[in-house]
């Protein structure tokens, strides 16, 4: 939906938008009114935060009601809606991952949306998915903070505590750095973008924190959707490495804030958590590299969907 530019456009333009989900008509909402409320420092920052903040206005009521949010955490480790024995048998902390949380369950509707975003290149879905993740973050992060006490140790700056008190926001931690599951060079050429990177960028812009490409993917073992958990882990062994330059930057930044002794909170973003093999492999590579650089960190992952 584009905002009308002047009186002629506002009279001649149809007073409805098109739903990104079903392409049905939805009531038109002035983009300018929304933008005023959002503020922002630069044009690009404003347009990114605008598209994420107004994500629900790009969906009709029917598509909004089809979103399968995870309402209750059944597994405190991977954030699945039901209890899962997999995390009990293969704990995430072994790979250095504190917990995973996902905004939605991977229903047929959600699968179709991801397919259009990831495989058909409909990048308009990035803002919709990032919007959903943003919308659910505080609720989901609070469940990690309750479960893992060390998350809440990081002291928040005074202005942030004041802001949360004023707006009655829950006192959940926000990441110090957002990173993402990397894509291979071949897939980047094929798709033209990395879905996980798009989501990470939009979240980081909204939270006003840095997004860093901490990981790289060495080889492409092809699609793993047909493999089981152990098959995927075998295929992924040694696939992810840390990006040396990005780690050096992170290290330099950490050394600048030597007064802050609390561990750094790193959020690893991906589109879907299926067996968790990719996230585990990434967290393992990240944990090993951070240890070598002497950086103390808590790593959590946040995916749009949990299969
Ligand atoms: Zn719709
Ligand atoms: Zn689990």
UniProtKB/TrEMBL annotation:
InterPro entries: ComF/GntX_DNA_util-trans, PRTase-like, PRTase_dom
Alphabetized SUPFAM superfamilies for the sequence: PRTase-like (SSF53271)
Family recorded in the similarity comment: Belongs to the ComF/GntX family.
PANTHER family registered for this protein in UniProt: DNA UTILIZATION PROTEIN YHGH
This protein's name: ComF family protein
């Amino acid at each position: 939906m584009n905002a009308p530019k002047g009186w002629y456009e506002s009279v001649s333009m149809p007073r409805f938008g098109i739903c990104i989900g079903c392409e049905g008509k939805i009531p038109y909402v002035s983009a300018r009114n929304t933008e005023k409320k959002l503020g922002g420092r630069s044009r690009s920052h404003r347009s990114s935060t605008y598209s994420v903040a107004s994500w629900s206005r790009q969906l009709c009521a029917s598509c909004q009601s089809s979103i399968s949010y995870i309402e209750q955490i059944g597994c405190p480790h991977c954030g699945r809606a039901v209890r899962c024995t997999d995390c009990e048998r293969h704990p995430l902390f072994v790979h250095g991952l504190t917990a995973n949380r996902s905004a939605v369950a991977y229903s047929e509707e959600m699968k179709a949306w991801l397919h259009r975003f990831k495989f058909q290149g409909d990048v308009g879905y990035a803002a919709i998915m990032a919007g959903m993740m943003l919308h659910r973050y505080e609720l989901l992060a609070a469940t990690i903070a309750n479960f893992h006490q060390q998350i809440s140790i990081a002291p928040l700056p005074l202005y942030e505590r004041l802001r949360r008190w004023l707006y009655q926001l829950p006192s959940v931690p926000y990441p110090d750095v957002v990173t993402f599951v990397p894509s291979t060079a071949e897939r980047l050429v094929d798709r033209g973008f990395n879905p996980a990177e798009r989501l990470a960028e939009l979240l980081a812009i909204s939270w006003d924190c840095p997004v860093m490409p901490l990981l790289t993917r060495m080889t492409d073992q092809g699609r793993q959707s047909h493999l089981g958990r152990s098959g995927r882990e075998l295929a992924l062994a040694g696939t992810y490495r840390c990006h040396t330059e990005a780690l050096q930057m992170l290290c330099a930044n950490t050394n600048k804030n030597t007064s802050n002794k609390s561990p750094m909170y790193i959020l690893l973003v991906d589109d879907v958590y299926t067996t968790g093999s990719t996230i585990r492999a990434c967290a393992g590579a990240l944990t090993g590299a951070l240890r070598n650089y002497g950086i103390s960190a808590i790593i959590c992952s946040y995916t749009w969907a949990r299969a």
